[in-house]
Amino acid sequence: MDTSGQFDIEDDSSDEDYEPSFCFTERPDAAIDIEEEEEVDETDTGDESDGPEYDQGPGVERLTIDSMDSLLSDTPFLVYKDCLLRLVQMNIPTSCQQCKSSVELMSDVVGSALYFSWVCSNGHLAKKWCSQPLLNRRLHSGDLMLSAASLLSGNNFQKISDFAKVMKLPIVNISTYHRIQRTYLVPSIDQFWINHQTSTLEDYIGKDVVVLGDGRMDSPGHCAQYCSYTFMEMESKTILCIITLDKRMTENKSTNLEKTCFEKGLKFLKDAGVNVVEVVTDAHVQIGALMNFLFQKKISMPTFVIPLTYGMEPRTLGKRLSRFPKRRVKRTNLC
């Protein structure tokens, strides 16, 4: 940081007109070494036809330009390999064993699964096949895995639904998706996080720990509905605690979300046996007021360090730094 310029002692200019007398420059040795990526030859125009001739042989359908309409009108399905092998090995009867009448093939779609049923004219079921294994409570494996993949990959149902609609791929509806998420996915994720957090905190029980904390709202301004506050151990960069609150838990005041999450997070770490000796946060007004309150009440608390806000404009940072020499000069004159 170059601070060779002189500070203006009597600077009454506004923030818009103020020009700081120093500039920030990055040291050459602080630059991150980035390995050069290998050049990729994009001139290769090879396609799948250059590989083994999988498309050759009887029974393999190959479409041409004139028959593309059949591809667009057909319907893809999510099929498991084991189920497909059972279909190939299945012995399909040509007549019903009960009434000896002919058997017809019928198909049905349930969620993302395809059912084949061989039924005679009298309604007798000869054979039945499903493209996916069934789980407990008649839940299809594909429906569960599709819902889990959508949630764990950070997507939402609307995006997956639009994707499936373009491909004409049958999937579950939104009510089934939320039911699967509520019944199976969310409890499993919660239990996995609790087990992981418990095993992580065991390494810090009874130890002096310096934590970094910051909150994130779901939307900017005073209309936020949710806040997630994260505490991270400084040395190992390990996430120790994540507290998420709804503003309905703070009397519908979104301005109290971050402070409440901060208090709950510190209490959680204390109850878990972690000795928090120092907390580093951003310059939050309510957290600063909480510090003053605890200090006045002489309540034991960890040391707080509130650094300057990251991303502060240089002109604002310059005006703040320029005040330090003034105060130092005044103290010298008084002595």
Automatic annotation (TrEMBL):
Region named Disordered: 1-60
Domain of life: Eukaryota
Designated name of the protein: Uncharacterized protein LOC111116945 isoform X1
Biased composition (Acidic residues): 8-19, 32-53
Organism listed in the record: Crassostrea virginica
